[in-house]
Amino acid sequence: MTAEIDEQPDILARLVEQRATIAGVARAIVEKPPRFALLAARGSSDHAALYAKYLIEVLLGLPAGLVSPSTTTLYGAHPDLRDVLLVSVSQSGGSPDLLEVTEAARKAGARTVAVSNTPSSRLFEVADLAVDIGAGEEHAVAATKTYTATLLALYLLVDAMRGGDGSAVGDIGRLAHTTLRDSASGVARAVDRYRFADRVVAAARGYSYATALEASLKLAETSYLHTRAYSGADLLHGPVAAVDEETAVLGLTSAGHGGTAMRDVLGAVAERGADVLAIGSAAGDMPAALRIDVPETAEEVAPILEVLPVQRLALQLSLARGGDPDSPRGLRKVTKTR
After folding, report:
1. Going along 21-70, which residue ranges are E strands?
2. Residue 95 pLDDT grade (very low, low, confident, very high; cuts 50, 70, 90)
3. Arithmetic mean of pLDDT, 287-299
4. Secondary structure of 224-280 in the HEC alphabet?
5. Which of the residues 71, 177, 254, 293 has the least number of beta carbons within 10 Å of its own beta carbon?
6. How far apart are CA 72 and CA 74, in angstroms?
7. Which domains can be identified in the chain, with CATH numbers?
8. Contacts of 315 (CB under 8 A, 6+ apart)
9. Whole-model pTM?
10. φ, ψ for residue 137 (rounded to 5)?
């Protein structure tokens, strides 16, 4: 996991160099503009799909939704998907439910796109179009480099669909290197602070909500922490009642509308005695006990960088708590569900 986290700056830089290939997929999509978009995924890929949902709705102005695979695999639903874009996101490309959803959607008239790290997978065969994220083989069970590469690939796809030139991520490799280097001391302080924590809440608004969900998953699967992730708005609509002095709150707060909206949320949990760790390019402006800054980018790009210290936090907390982050108990690299 350590090695794969450290590979990310180079992987992201290489993926930007492949922008023209991804732009070709985008052109094929916009030749027949979809009425709306659907995204199908599981696990970390589902968090990347949520990120893409925000991209599609905000940058393209298209309605977008997350697929519930069981409506197809368990209940046999066959909705009319003519003129719909279905994007299936899977690191392995081997989960039976995503294959079935993609095949069914194509038969129902959807234009299907596979986004995966495994170009030899069956998913690439059943989809109309495909995007290879090119992260290389990932050995640790916890997804790190495949997650950020998926985020970047989805951004490049959506950006190209709106006629963008990818300039917002042109320097993403260097920025990722800077983030990993400069966040190291802050992560070490956070590990010392939270190694004995029992409850963690991750929260964010907007694009960064995907990072909150990914943070919750990473801490649960590597460090066996009881974690929950919420939209900052939803957190205040009830769950905040369970926040107290025994709760660690991880707030993802990058510059932009989402980060601004998190200031009052973190203030509210801090007033309840929660120990707040703010991560992101707006962390310095947040009411928090500990802050980890991340270089500022366009808001829609921030999740690619802000998750990097989160990955390091999960890794080092696992080691500090006596765990093995490469092989969490009860988990395998590829999970096959239906």
Report:
1. 36-41, 64-66
2. confident
3. 97
4. CCEEEEEEHHHHHCCHHHHCCCCEEEEEECCCCHHHHHHHHHHHHHHHCCCEEEEEE
5. 71
6. 6
7. 2-169 (3.40.50.10490), 172-320 (3.40.50.10490)
8. 1, 2, 5, 142, 222, 325
9. 0.95
10. -60, 135
